[in-house]
Inverse folding.
C-alpha cells in the first residue's frame, strides 16, 4: 500500500466535488506516513514484508499473521 511522504497520522471525512458544484456524500479518509502505518498495522497482526520508494512515493507490503491460539492448559 502507499504511505504518505510526510510523517502524518490523520483521519478525516471528505467529500468529492464534481467540478460543477455538486458534492458527494462524506466518507472516511486517512493519510498516514510509513511510521504510523506500521504502528497501526502491527497493532492488529500485520507485519512488514518490504518497504520501498518509487519516484518519491513510499510503499509498504504487509503480511497478516494470525495470533497463535492460546492453550487452555497454560497457567
Amino acid at each position: 500500500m502507499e504511505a504518505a511522504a510526510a510523517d502524518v497520522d490523520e483521519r478525516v471525512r471528505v467529500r468529492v466535488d464534481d467540478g460543477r458544484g455538486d458534492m458527494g456524500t462524506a466518507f472516511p479518509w486517512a493519510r498516514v506516513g510509513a511510521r504510523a502505518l506500521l504502528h497501526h498495522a502491527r497493532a492488529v497482526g500485520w507485519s512488514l514484508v518490504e518497504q520501498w520508494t518509487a519516484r518519491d512515493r513510499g510503499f509498504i507490503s504487509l503480511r497478516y499473521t494470525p495470533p497463535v491460539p492460546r492453550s487452555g492448559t497454560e497457567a
Notes: The longest helix spans residues 34-43. The CA atoms of residues 40 and 46 lie 9 Å apart. The mean pLDDT is 93. The radius of gyration is 18 Å.
